[in-house]
Design brief:
Elements: E1 27-30, H1 32-38, H2 46-59, E2 63-67, H3 73-84, E3 93-99, H4 102-111, E4 117-125, H5 128-135, H6 139-163, E5 168-176, H7 183-197, E6 205-211, H8 218-231, E7 238-244, H9 251-260, E8 265-268, H10 282-290, H11 303-314, H12 335-351, H13 384-395, H14 404-418, H15 424-436
Parallel strand pairs: 1-2, 1-8, 2-3, 3-4, 4-5, 5-6, 6-7, 7-8
Helix pairs in contact: 2-11, 4-6, 6-7, 7-8, 8-9, 12-13, 13-14
The structure holds 3-methyl-2-oxobutanoic acid (KIV) and zinc ion.
Residues 35, 210, 243, 245, 275, 279 line the site of zinc ion.
Length: 439
Amino acid sequence: YKKYLPFQPIRFPERTWPEKVIDRAPVWCSVDLRDGNQALVTPMNLHQKVVFFKTLVEIGFKEIEVGFPSASETEYETLRYLIDEHLIPDDVTVQVLVQARAHLIEKTFEAIRGAKNVIVHFYNSTSTLQRKVVFDTDMEGVIGIAMDAARLIRQLADKMREEYPEMNLRFEYSPESFSGTEVENAVRICDDVLEALGATPEDKTIINLPNTVELATPNCFADQVEYVATHLKHRDCAILSIHPHNDRGTATAATELGVMAGAERVEGTVFGNGERTGNCDIMNLAMNLYAQGVDPKLDFTNMNHIKRVYEECTHMHVHERHPYAGELVFTAFSGSHQDAIHKGVTYMAKTGAAHWAVPYLPIDPADLGRQYEPIIRINSQSGKGGAAFIMHRHFGYILPKQMHPEFGALIQEVCNREGRELKAEEVFRIFQREYLRVH
Ligand code: KIV
Ligand code: ZN
């Protein structure tokens, strides 16, 4: 990541711009195996969950929500399998989700027995809409549900710590549908829960603010996060987390603004799988940091492998235009882009530039384990620079500048005539035929 310059402010008159940048990675928590899984047409089986879990560990996730063990037998079994087979590394914490309901909380505590590091994540819905339409209760009723759950969790945790003194047990509370909740009420319920759980600055509780349904432009979510960050009475006893969804297609922006507004932790999934339009895409967020010289603390150097595991386990497809991961995102067809990329690559090789300086490519594809080869592909849109680049990179021929227009036109003519893209080998064969008289 050090080969990328930190964000370079463009000159902007009469103000400091940008006012905020993200200069360190938040704590990441993958919810692929829970939020992602619950949104699949065919949820993952035990084997797929274990394979996916191992891949998340390889990527570098230290917190992984593995499921809803009180709600599904597969999720209960998966968690027990991970614990009993010692598949959870000592520096990884597994997180389990549960509704704020007594019998589900009790079953959850049964499921986590003996795990080394666990976060018990409980939630209830707090928005004005859900209070009225779903629960037919007021804010006092909603706070009562959260407090009863918090007290029970504390009691069961005390008991479990006695029985398993080596367990590192932590808590997380989500006011579900936070973004549809009045900010004062959100602060009130979170402070009450922190008190009921006995959170301290040494033993912090995660307060997770979900954008359960993305309802407004990303700055609105960030304003709500900022309000909580600056008004929580027990702020020093909390780790502030966010859990953005993507209903308006702006989860990445909402997450970045949420972090700038004070969130220290982000829950999301690797390619944005999750309920409806998905969760925020942690790979996208991490690579955005990477591309501005910030260590994302996650490793996507083996992108093709990660993509393969994801597609096999979820039966979902990573779109060709998906940032950083899509099949076509390091491909340039148009002539002017090819020419600029060619010049950038040559400039870097010639000058030994310390920082990445290739136009149209925000990062070096090699950093994701991808190849240079597919960057320049030749079709009827390609210009003179593209064909020359192919000859140089693939076949070691440096064509004199004067020759570029003629050779480019020749290649373009074949593409137009045949109505298709040409492979590098075909470009070379045309070169051999026309200039070396090889048939
Ligand atoms: O989106 C959401 O609100 C959730 C909570 C359960 C955290 O997934
Ligand atoms: Zn969610």
